[in-house]
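Hey, can you fold this one?
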Amino acid sequence: MAGKKGVTGRKKDPVRTAQTREDLLRASYGLFSRKGIESVSMEEAAKAAGYGVATLYRYYGTKPKLVVAVASWKWSEFLTADREERHRRNVPGMSAAERYGVFLDTFIKLYRNNKDLLRFNQFFNLYIGSAKIDAETLGPYSRLLGGLEGEFFDIYAKAQTDRTLRTDVPKEIMFSTTLHLMMAAATRYAAGLVYRTGGETDEMNELNTLKNALLREYTAE
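Sure. Predicted structure:
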């Protein structure tokens, strides 16, 4: 099957290789976030990027590896931009409670600006469960999101010094509760799964209400 490129026997051009990878990731992400992951074939993903399926297999080998690469690429893009914004705001210089507020804002910003990523992430979680992807294949994605946990643990460590957040709750439980509540709500809204009573639903207001509830729960007296 013909594609944009496919010439063999030549020395690889690193710029072209990087562009090919991005083309494949971007096209696959677009399909996965709109249609789900299970229903998209490798052939469809390659065609959407303008390449032959052999090129896609050459770069990623299997569909699970492609899916994990897409997740790692897109989350890295979001988290890098978020980290740069925190640096500009000098977040490390804030109190633990203030930093926790900024951490909660990350999920609100995710919903406001990256609904497609939340939809993709929902499909991704379903796929890795059904496809039984091994830990080694999941490694790049797991390490990336492990950085989010590490960031929270830094906040908790600061709270042990400045006492602006509760430290009687284990950090693992506080992180898990925060992550699951904020991600579940943001994902549900992004997927359009909202309860309507005839009036408009204000998802941003509800997310801010949830943020404030968590702040009240974990801010020290």
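The CA atoms of residues 20 and 51 lie 9 Å apart. Let me know if you want another pass with a different chain boundary.
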